[in-house]
């Protein structure tokens, strides 16, 4: 037995050395990923002078999800025989965001034209000096004012050309409204909802008195619609300092949405995009939700076989926008002139309407909103709702471009968690205090 | 002639002594580049104010460490990590041992069963996490539905701390039990059969032989598996990140592990200094755990063998 024991010991020692080595490698790998995104700050601008009229130019275009550009790119290449376009598509906006910031910090590897989603636009605007100013007389006044304003930095440089947008209406289940003895056609429902949050919540109380189905999906999503109507919710636009915890308007919105959703029981207490939320479309989980144009497609997908969804042409508290993207030209690009040309061409009203018809990305260009092509568009599964007309109206109702600073993403994330905690049973005050601490920890 | 022979002899001796090191050097060179250097660089980053995009800022000494240690979320994440680690590693190793013992006996279609236990390991962890978080849905999940059939109230898998840890540990176990079972099985097959025959003659039963022969003979392998699963368990990331749609570890950080916390600091808050400080503390914690585990298992197992 002694021999085996000895060999066991030997193995044991080896295992210990190995364990340390393995641990080192493992943490090293972690550290490596941490470092790869932070190495240096050099921009690839050395190549910027290489642009020349002679010889074909190859541009890369990076987008995500569905921009609807597949058929447009060959048309662009045909009109510009000197330019070839390679289209790279990321599966999700999050994936694109990770790519975007990693390459931005690495100083190389970005595409000539990079698509940016409005959710992380404020983050990238901090580094607006790493992008080309796309202001040009050719495109002046092309977009809805709030759309262009959101992509303009403090020095007045236009960093991105708007592609689509997400003007919000309210989607609702007409069959459940009918069952509750309420009006169910979209004009009467729009009247019932009114155009303030109070009237929307009051309609909810009327509904829930006669139905067991919760009125809306989530207080987090509803809060988002409300807080987007504040001009500067979390930060001071002048110096970017955090004002979130002292802003009485934020607290007011917080209290109002909790009163409606929890105290009055209107919320289904779901978290958007969660598995339960997705499943609830098949189980009469809730009767209404705030609904940007692209959400119609999401509902269609999740609620397959469920009849009764419709859109009411109203939005409480004025207009609201959720989502939409921009095309930017990083200074890393070796061919900024051609890249700007491509971005300008793709975001022209004609092209954006073609994209809308293909994938439903709602245009953010003024001229597109009056196009008969767009206005006549209807969705069969939504009781033939004229979504083109409705969302064009909704887009014109948006007046405000809320200020979103450096910490917007982190503060809003913490707020969403605070609201989820309340839905899970925390007291509103306790959860608010925790949020205040979270925000303080950011500094 | 003589000096030449001496020279040759010296060369031979040098060859014998130095060559092995030359042969293993590629690993260490590679390790130095992709392991040691980032380790040192992370330490450097952790001593500075450092932003994801903006890069290096002022030297702040140990401030990042004290900042992080002062955050309740760090301690919460440490607690969660240890809890999920214990809930996954302990049952995992015990079940793997039992499965290995079962596979070691005379089974029909042996290869089929052995391949079968490895299947979960082949699946991508993210895919496993997506499927399991659907199964563990609070309102419409399959697990709660099944619990309902036997009269148990639905468990709030995404709300309460312990259930969320159990759900995540289940994913980890699902993935690693078969893998560890195969390692144990390989070691079991190396145990000389004479021992079992001798024990049989002495009148020992199945359980007795398992405890008195199999386990002590597997000591080295058990140490190896425990150490590797300690390292893996303390760095758990994919499963908790994919457990809900936000990936931050729950609204009240119910299942935020240290790696998730690190990720949040580095990529959501873009504070690389603090993230690097957490990375280093995680490294030290893992080394400490690995050493404790190693010493403990060596103790226990060597007692058993004598």
From TrEMBL, chain A:
Name under which the protein is recorded: Cellobiose-binding protein
Q: Which organism is it from?
A: Humibacillus xanthopallidus
Q: Which InterPro entries match?
A: Bact_solute-bd_prot1, SBP
Extract the PANTHER family matched here: ARABINOSE-BINDING PROTEIN-RELATED, SUGAR BINDING SECRETED PROTEIN
Tell me which positions the record assigns to the signal sequence. Answer: 1-31
Keyword list, A-Z: Signal
